[in-house]
Amino acid sequence: MTTTSAPAASTGPGALLPVGWWARGLALHERAALAGATGPATGTGGDPATGDRRLARWRTGHGPGLATRLTDLGLDEDGLRALLAQDATELAALAARPEWVETVETAVRASVALPAGAPVPADWREALAVPLQPFVDLALDRLHKETATRVPHGDVDIAAMADTLGALLRQRLVAIAVRTLVADLHRRRAAGRLAGRTGGPASPTSSGG
User: Which domain of life is it from (predicted)?
Assistant: First the structure.
């Protein structure tokens, strides 16, 4: 992943993105590289219980392949546990900001709240795509800027290309958002942090995911 030389910590646009919000998005190999450069993956902000909980999810999610992946990175489970327990603020202080951070912050800055009474799409996929639209707009803006100087006028139907790209990108973003929301809801339910009829600690007879 390409990184920039921007300051490690970011306040983000407004209160939506706190300092170091992006650190949790660092890939495992990026975290392992930081640990290798700065010493063991330990720090005052690390929470052992958090490390244990996340390690358990990794074991479940990766199965027997986890050992191979860790070996490729020069890690064992103790090292992985330490990396997973690291505090986001500490990670942000050690790492260079990836380029995608600016993309996300630009999209968030461009987002606006829907006016009261604004119609909401009936299809849940279209409704979920609404808050993701700034990412699509940003990508299409870049497309138009690049093609304006690199593609001879009339050789390519840029408008049709943009329409297709926009539709595909919206679908992809919605799919990613759905997986993320389901995973987050599952973690919160398991921790007893959901409010409502399906919230609270899971009982032995409860069903659903």
Answer: Bacteria
Give the residue from 92, 118, 84 showing the smallest Cα distance to 17.
Answer: 92
**Residue 106 covered by a domain:** no
Both tokens of 143, joined, read 């497309």
In a domain, 156, yes or no: yes
The pLDDT, as a whole number, for residue 113 is 85
HSE, side-chain direction, 13 A CA sphere, residue 43: 22
Does residue 11 belong to any structural domain of this protein? no
Range 95-116 average pLDDT: 90
Nearest residue to 85 via CA among 40, 122, 126, 125: 40
For residues 56-79, give the mean pLDDT: 88
Same domain assignment for residues 118 and 90 = no
Single out the residue of 197, 194, 200 nearest to residue 182, CA to CA: 194
Residue 37, pLDDT > 70, answer no
What is the pTM for the complete model shown? 0.71
Residue appearing with tokens 């992985």: 80
Residue 19 has pLDDT above 50, yes or no: yes
Tally of domains within the chain: 2
pLDDT of the residue at 198: 54
Q: Which domain holds residue 182?
A: 111-190
